[in-house]
Hints:
Blueprint: H1 12-19, H2 24-35, H3 45-70, H4 78-94, H5 100-122, H6 128-147, H7 149-152, H8 170-187
Amino acid sequence: MKTGVSKHEMGFLSRVLDRLCLTPLGALLLIFLAVLPFIPPFSDQYLLRWLTIIALSAASAIAFDLTAGFINIVNFGFAAILGLGGYTSAILAVRAGLSPWVGIFVGALASGILGFLTGLLTLRLRGIFAAVMAWFIGLALMGLAIKMVWLTRGPLGLRVPRMIDTSSNEPYYYMMLVMLLVVYVICR
């Protein structure tokens, strides 16, 4: 919310919205999403789980839009980079008994390293060749995840213990909502 008014003349709410890169409509949407689990049709745990997955997909889409729209680099291996972080975190939690909270940071580090290495391989390529190379890296990682049944359980995937000891999906929904806001602010 860029205006010609100085920061001292703006009210507290306007400064917060400006810092979060939100318009008043965006703030209303955020408030609506925050109270959504209390509205009866959406308080169902099944729907709340889907809303969490939708928030995760939205955060991924915003991050993809940063690379494809702003930096103008189409990376078809983007999902594989995210998947490697998820699998790293899950494998550390299931196979090594590491806390999922620690696994998140190790998974993010693994994704960052893969993204960096993919960038080294593809940034010298031009046009469609860079996108195809990133796509092939994604296909190779998908093939590895499916074939390494002893580690990943193949197409069945890993059953990861819950990070928070609760049967409710509300904490996960709010964590994803915060992460969605963080990704939005970073990419904005």
